Amino acid sequence: MKIVSRNEELLREALSCIPQPSSRASLASCNKLIRFEDISAAAFKIQCGVQKTPCMYSRLSKQYGMEIYLKKEFLQYTGSVKERGVLYLLMSLPQEQQRKGVIVASDSNFSMAVAHHAAELGVPVFVIVPSTTAPARVRTCRDYGAMVLSYGATAKDAQLHARRLAQENGYLYLEEEDSAVYLSGLGTVGLEMYEQVPKLDAVIFPAGGHCGLLAGSAAALKHLNPQISVIGVESESFPVLQQSLKAGHPTDDQACNNHHFYGDVSGVCFGSNSLQLTGKLVDKVVAVREEDILIAMLRLLEYERATVDAEGAIGLAALVAGKLPELRGKRVAVVICSGNLELHLLQQCIARALTLDNRVCRFSLVISDCPGDMSKLLEILAREEVRVLDIKQERTFVTSELFTVQVICTVETRDKIHTAQLRNALLERYPTTAWTER
């Protein structure tokens, strides 16, 4: 957590353990920065302000050959695990600063957590967002109790404006970083999972640039049982953590664009402290494709009735993609950390995931332009028990024989095997059937 204000002397006592982002702490100082006692203290202090979310056995276990337990952090009030670190930080601020207020500049899960918990604690809170922010996010922050202001066309414009307001009015400017206070709050997830699921073999966390949850929880889990394997998962499109670990310091990946689909997993690596904790305590970091994330979102919706975003589904995506074969037969916990997916993205993600899962397919064929031929095609589809989603007929631009019609049909099937059965049945009756590849 980066703290910026003109009243830093007020914070020095409460947050003296927070290093400057540019400092390069050694592993020894990193161990002093966050201890198990810090995480335990955070758990005690925030227990009345955040949910102790369930860590439940999943029906997906049989499908992937292991005991899977899902830590459902998306059930927090703001739909994100970030509440844990945010609440602990806000409760640690001096009373004078709580009275003056705090300010953030983004539309992220972090900002929504600050908006909610600052309002609950009676701390004046201001959220500055660029004009491109989705109206639903603006409305949500206002509903939580924050004063939301739109400024500038980019996130950088909003951040500069927020810093200026903080300097002029004595607000505390908060930006997500990797201080001991923030990491200790996030680390309470690992503490809870250890208590909720006995004899854990491995725990899977989302990683990416913002790896505070991974680092803080690893500190708790490795203290309680060094034999538990701690695994981070990031996107192949933004392998920020793997690049940073390889370089030995936080790197700025130029490919990072903070696309709303990816959320925090596409951000730049934000701190050397989280990075050093990750390098010391995390056993493995793997990367998954976008296709795997989408299918994981679909599995969670179908099997768990859980609507999550990419950051929430990325841990399960490692199992979907078969990236962790060594965990077969083991007891594994997966953190589902976020469920803040915008509605228009949800619709696109589910439609795309069904196609990737070979459950929505499209084909075209040419039949005689007679009522009887169309009914025969529909009879085949009914016999194969597929659901017709869309059917179109093209007569004008058909290049085959006269008095024929091209039929373009989109159907939904049960699974990949059902799709193959349909394909064979159509090819048997219509040898020229063309399938649209996904």
UniProtKB/TrEMBL annotation:
Keyword Lyase: yes
Domain ACT stretches: 362-438
Organismal lineage: Eukaryota, Metazoa, Chordata, Craniata, Vertebrata
Cofactor or coenzyme needed: pyridoxal 5'-phosphate
Entries under CDD domains matching the protein: ACT_ThrD-II-like, Thr-dehyd
GO molecular function terms listed in the Swiss-Prot or TrEMBL record: L-serine ammonia-lyase activity; threonine deaminase activity
Keyword annotations of the record: Lyase, Pyridoxal phosphate
GO BP, sorted A to Z: isoleucine biosynthetic process; L-serine catabolic process; L-threonine catabolic process
InterPro entries: ACT_dom, ACT_ThrD-II-like, Ser/Thr_Dehydratase, TrpB-like_PALP, TrpB-like_PALP_sf
The encoding gene: Srr_0
The protein, known as: L-serine deaminase
Gene3D superfamilies: 3.40.50.1100
